[in-house]
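Here is an idea for our session: we take a single protein and study its fold together. Start from the sequence, derive the backbone structure tokens from it, and show both lines together. Once you have written the record down, we can walk along the chain together:
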Amino acid sequence: MKVIKEQDIIDSIAGACQYISYYHPEDFVKAMVEAYEKEESQSAKNAIAQILINSKMCAMGHRPLCQDTGSVNIFIKVGLNAKLELSKELEEVLNEGVAKGYTDPDNTLRYSVVSDPAGERKNTKNNTPAVIHYSVDNSDKIEITVAAKGGGSENKSKFTVLNPSDSIYDWVMENVKHMGAGWCPPGILGIGIGGNPEKAMLLAKESLMDHVDIHELKARGPKNAVEELRLKLYEDINKLGLGAQGLGGVTTVLDVKILDYPCHAASKPVAMIPNCAATRHIEFELDGNGPAKFEKPDLDIWPDLEIPMDSVKRVNIEDLTKENLSQFKSGDTLLLSGKILTARDAAHKKIVEYKEAGKPLPNGVDLKDRFIYYVGPVNPVRDEKVGPAGPTTSTRMDKFTKDMMEIGIMGMIGKAERKQPTIDLIKEYKSMYLIATGGAAYLISQSIKDAKVLAFEEMGMEAIYEFEVKDMPVTVAVDTEGTSIHTTGPAQW
């Protein structure tokens, strides 16, 4: 019997983390191309185009699809007849592989995992530990699925225990309506039904590892209640008009996946987890013949796309004032050039603490009349000024917006919708909220010509940077009158 060596497991996990950071699954790319071809909303079509352009650039340049390179999920099935040669616990081996993959100097990935989650929340500096799910069978091999899940989509996960007579369809539809765009649609919706609370959540996560096959199911017709539910949800969620990035359009989900399990007669546990436009996972097996080998996809699966420039407005940030922001309306596409600052959750919290203490920010950082970009970039490699640098979900910064407006910022750049109180503040202060395309991080980073840390360097991705941008693509999401494209766009479609 061949021996599965420790180093082969480590190298395979590391290789998988690298591979999925820059290669979308082929079935996902094909589904996105189909969504692009049938999209009728120009704003949503442009967003899908950016995602596909970004995807091809990452496949060619071997840099991350998204600045949020995710927390690692590992599903591992260990054969009881497999012969493993290990010097440490299997969990340690798997995490060593994750650390090796995320710290690769040729394609350093972002470290997003923090320890002591209820306390200090200190970054572990190598994106470990992974969340690992074990199972066994009677084989003589190991089967492994590695997935990277970003915070934006994970944060939209939902769970409930319905009464046996309650409608799963109604619960899912109601939650999707209120889920917003922070999970970066179009993507895949995973649903778990049955078991108990933890089993339902695990089923929902596992379902996201399946291939996109909704059109095959549609062509042959459903054979059971679960397949009927998949089709009905797929059709009706797309009729909601949320669309790519919440801009309004005909495609919100590329597929709906469902796994179920027997449950107690008094219960109906149901879980829902979305996968975003940076869907990333791969399956492989180890049988003692060395580490896993991952095949490069054919670049021909990606179309050559260009974003139409006829309605795009080029804007020099240095020319903007609170008085002339009103010229831009919700839905306008802009190419920004000039200097912007970055800040995420931790930086906003620090800024407010400094404000309340009456202290100036470190290094003379001045936020007045500046645009704040909600981003935690990947570290640069080689001659890059910055690594992939796409937007994070803006609603997390809503609770800080009033303080930021009082400080005097001009506007904000992020992704997805804002809550109504924040929209009211934008209107009151005659500010503006812009969105960049979630899932187009490497494409966006090409517009960043210089980057330097101004404050809170010890916080890593949460530091305040100054970016110098040239033709950074953004869309006006909320204009100075408080008109939000995340309301008007879906309503239209």
About this structure: The two ends are 60 Å apart (CA to CA). The chain has a mean pLDDT of 96.
